[in-house]
Each structure stands twice: as structure tokens, then as C-alpha cells.
Amino acid sequence: MKTDIITIGDEILIGQVVDTNSAWIADEMTKIGTDIRQITSISDSKQHIFDCLNESKNDVDLVLITGGLGPTNDDITKETLAEYFDTELITDKDVLEDVTNFITSKGFKLNEQNIKQAEVPANCKRIRNTNGTAAGMWFESGGRVVISMPAVPFEMKEMMQKSVIPLIKNHFILRSIVQKTVQTYGLPEAMLAEKIANWENNLPPKMKLAYLPSPERIRLRLTCMSDDKQKGEEQINNQIESLKNIIGKYIFGIGDIFLHEEIGNILRELGKKVTTAESCTGGNIARLIVSIPNNSDYFDGGLVAYSNSVKNKLLGVKQTTLDNYGAVSRQTVKEMAFGAIKMFGVDYAIAVSGIAGPGGATEGKPVGTTWIAVANKDKVWAKKFTFGNRRAINIRRATSTALNMLRLFIPEN
């Protein structure tokens, strides 16, 4: 079953509003087994709407539209759809009741523009909106379904979840779709693809692999279309087990999980605690750790030691170490890590010091040079990385690399 998504609004085309609706809708529709053929953003233009609907007429089973249903003159979607489906606008008493209740519940009086909101094309199925004044509309023509919804995200999402998706499931015969995501870190995308090429080339015919890279992780998303959901799940699970035999140490989780969440799971299970001593990452590692609920089980606090004086006075990094090797060095991050463990009295520490950029480079230490250490009371791993020349990306990569080092360090120490 093929689906097109159309978002309507001049504000999207000029960059004033970011279209998050289409991404959310596409994700929800993929989950229930539809294939997204195309996502299009268009202007508030009758001809443009006509053109898009005509272009999809013979190629898709379902068109989902958001936008242009407001009470102002530039909102023309409803009138355009009435003309396209050769019908007139009529006042629907149920929609009028919804509009009246919504407006008066906010302490306002109903005006002519509000009443106009209760007008809907005569030949559509009305979809009620409990969070606003724009009703949704369901049209059927030539075997194709066209659904129009408001563009306000929270209105659209509730309408989709409560009404539209159940209606779609009832109207269409949908395939079962099974998706699982393997979370990896430690291999660049090209090297990862090379390492698993043979495995990928031998995936079952109805199974697809997508690479979804970011500085925090590379997600390997497996999708299986099947008439039998249980069989699809078994096939995906078997492929994941095979993948673990190839890149097991680079896999840190299955499903929608980040490294800092997995670290929390590991520490909580062991009953251990971690602290952070951060320079170039500026507290970003600690920020991620505390973003997880109940993190106090394994995190008491950390320190942003940006200047050499703080590294020296609070973490106990020797002045001779800073003088002889510099802040960005193996020796310094090792002392930072041990100093943090002593300071906070915990089991593990992460220490990071680097040149995030754009300035600060010295001879032999270009922008992006970063030393990371992970340690317990008795042992430390320290390693140098060169991430690049973009400050924000360097901070994200240093953060994820540090967390991944700790993930690998804990089982061995």
C-alpha cells in the first residue's frame, strides 16, 4: 500500500516553520505497514493542491494532507478539496458543536470565522478534532483515500492516533511490518558497511537495511515486510544474532537507546557509580547522564575543569604534568580521572581534555585533538582522538567516544 504525504503552507516554504508533521506521520504510517512514496511541501495555492492530488491519483492508495484548515483567508485547503471532489460546503451540526464547545471553554465568544470552521465538504467523512476548531476530512474516490488534517502538531497527532490510524487499519488490508534497530558505535559508516557487506548481501529478499549515522551512534535499522508478524520477528532476530557474531563489540544496544542510557543500565545493574571530569566537553557528558530518570542510582556529580588551575587545585593534576605535557595529553587526563574518583569517592571516572576549536591549536595538536581517559581506582585507559575542526561536532563525538570507552572498560575491569 503506497502513501503520499502533503504539507501545505507558505510558512514552510520560506523556512519560517519547520515541517515536523511529515516526519512524524511517515514514521507512524511505516509502523502500520504502508510504503511512503513521496513527501511534498507546497504553497497555499489551489492549483498547486490540484496538481499534487492529480499527480498521485494513479500511483498511491492513500494521501495524507496537513495544513490550510484555519479560520483566516489564506487557509484555502477545505474550499479547494470541496472543488476538487466536486461538492459543496455545508455546515455540519456535530462539527459546529465541537467548535462552539472549544471556543466557549476558552472564555471566548463565537464569531463568524469560528462558525465558518464548521463548514465541511458535503461528501467527506468528518473526523472530529477535540483540541481545536478544524475538523479532519476523509474522501474516497476511484479507490484512493485522501485525508486532510490540521497542521497544528498536537491537534494532528491526537487526530491521527485516536481516529485516522484506526480508520486506515479498518479500511485497508495492511501487511505486517517488523522493525528493529541495532545501535552501534566505534566504526565509521564506510568501515561498518565494509565489515558487514557479506551479511547485508545475504539478507532475506523482503528484508531491508538502512544506515542512520550521527555523531552519537550509527543505527542499523532492519525492516521486514511479512504476512506473518511472528515469522517476520523471528527472521529479524536471527539476522541480529548473526550480526552480533560479526560486530559484537561495536553493538551497544537493540532498539531506540543511546550510549548514556546503556551506561546507566550497566552501572545500575552492577550497583556502581561514575563521575565525570570534563574540559572541552564542558559538562556535556554529565548533562546526558542526568537526563535519564533515577540517574542518582549511579551518578552523584561531576566537575567541569576547563582551566588548568581548576585541573590542578580541584582534581589534583600536578603542575609539572601541565607544564611538561600540557592540558591536552595522556598524562593530564589520567590524573584527572584518578583525581575525580578520589574527589567523589566513586567506582569509575571519565576524563576528557581537548581542543574543540575553532582556535587553540598548537604545534602537534591540531583542532579536534582530544585525550579521553576512563578509570577505576586501580586502572586507567587513555587514548588520543582527532575529531575534526567543527566545535559542536567535536564536543558530541568526544562525549560519545568517552561513554563508549567506559562501556568497554567496565566488563574488563
Task: Provide key terms for this protein.
alpha/beta, Molybdenum Cofactor Biosythetic Enzyme, Chain A, Alpha-Beta Plaits, Maf protein, 16 helices, elongated
In brief, what are we looking at here?
The chain has helices spanning 10-13, 21-31, 46-56, 77-84, 93-105, 112-116, 153-171, 189-195, 197-201, 229-247, 259-270, 284-290, 308-313, 319-325, 330-344, 391-412; strands spanning 2-8, 35-42, 62-66, 89-91, 119-121, 125-127, 136-141, 144-149, 176-184, 207-214, 217-226, 251-254, 274-278, 303-304, 348-354, 369-375, 380-386. It has 413 residues and is α/β, with parallel strands linked by helices. The protein is elongated, with a radius of gyration of 28 Å.
Structure description:
The chain is of the alpha/beta class and 413 residues long. It has 3 domains: 2-171, MoaB/Mog-like domain (Molybdenum Cofactor Biosythetic Enzyme, Chain A); 176-254, Alpha-Beta Plaits; 262-412, Maf protein, CATH 3.90.950.20. Helices cover 41% and strands 24% of the residues. The strands form 4 sheets. Strands 2-1-3-8-7-6 form a 6-stranded mixed sheet, with helices on both faces. The chain has a 5-stranded mixed sheet with strand order 14-13-15-16-17, with helices on both faces. The protein has a 4-stranded antiparallel sheet with strand order 10-11-9-12, with helices on both faces. Helix 2 (21-31) packs parallel to helix 7 (153-171) and helix 11 (259-270) packs parallel to helix 16. It is elongated. The mean pLDDT is 94.
